[in-house]
Write a structure and sequence with these properties.
Blueprint: H1 6-21, H2 28-31, H3 36-45, H4 50-55, H5 65-75, H6 80-87, H7 92-101, H8 111-116, H9 136-141, H10 156-174, H11 177-186, H12 188-200, H13 214-217, H14 219-231, E1 249-253, E2 258-259, H15 260-267, H16 271-277, E3 285-286, E4 293-297, H17 301-310, E5 318-322, E6 327-328, H18 329-336, H19 340-347, E7 354-355, E8 360-364
Antiparallel strand pairs: 1-4, 2-3, 5-8, 6-7
Length: 371
Amino acid sequence: MYGLSTKAWLSALCLLCVVMSGCAYVSHSAANDLDAEELARTQRQAVSIWVPMKEGFTLAPLASPMVERQIKFYSASGTHLQDSLELSRPYLYYVLEEVKKRNMPTEIALLPFLESSFNIRRGKGLNPAGLWGLMPVAARHLNLAQTPFLDERRDIVRSTQAALDLMQELHNKFGDWHLALAAYNWGPGNMSQAIANNQRRKLPTNYLSLSMPVETMIFVPKLLALRKIIEDPIAYKIVLPDILNKPYFEKIEVKHAIDISVVTQLAGISRDEFIDLNPSYNKPLIPAGKNQFLLLPVTRIETFQKNYRQFDQPLSLWRSVIVEQPQSLEMFAKQWQVDPHRTRQMNGLPMGMTLKAGMMVVIPKPSLKDD
């Protein structure tokens, strides 16, 4: 509030007008105090995500023909690049904002293009999964849960936080963004070994001097190629998707266990729309718990909240119980009078597994047991 010039106050007022109105209208009194270039930049920032994205590009260039080769590859790949960037529409604003909060190069927000092509349904089990292509070992290192009900590698918010934590950890370790990116792809242990090998031979330890697998060697050139295309898409005959520089989704706290079918009903969205924002849930039930949340499109929040307040039916067909003592699933099912096959399927339990004391098992609610 203190020390701001009249011009700064009017600039902020102009931005507010643009955001609230969704159009290019700015009052003449404010526009008179802004030069045309500043006004145009303010308006673009309120509309397109590519403006703040490009303003944060700070990765050092690589003096390597690999970058140009990757540009040619992207340009010749038909609509793959444009399709993948279109898939980023629900996620890119959130990812970019989290990158900016950490003062990281905004190129990092494009890493999911390399790791998953922004396809949130790609990967499961022992394979890389989620936007950030995280392996199970990385998930354990980053404290991301992997249970029959949940794979947080595919959680948009938690996986993004974890991946950026990892990138910062690697940057602190290696002191160079190129090496940090290579370590993200290849693993920090492999990167440390490659650096040590060059040090023993009294060779440089920069990115282009290290012996790395081809996939890792072209990892940074791919990212820099993507940056160059975004900086000047017309030159490369690429049309960037018109992604707005504003939130696509909001978080909703899960205070009570709720079925996905109920969420979609209350929000007025399809199951596919739900999965686009909540791909981490493996089962039809969203369990309640500390810091448990789901994501919904900003445009559906008000509808969901209104319908939730008026909803007078059970939120879930399931309930969770704690196993009191070690026992077979068959004995447990008999005790609770539920179908063992359906219980095994719902909980992802292998055949012959003994349930352990303290284990949580989800079963149908009493009035909704199998006929």
